[in-house]
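I would love for you to help me understand the pair of lines that follows before we discuss the fold together.
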Amino acid sequence: MRLAELQAAGRHPQLPLRVTLADGAGAAELRLDSLLRVLPGQRYVGAGE
């Protein structure tokens, strides 16, 4: 899932979810198993690997 897709999911994205992150060092994947706090369009706080 890209960050734009996560933003479009609003307050209730389907879990577990994988977010693809990319920077100058290359791509990485973040897996979220649960969400602890959601502020749509601002912040998602979750637990995962």
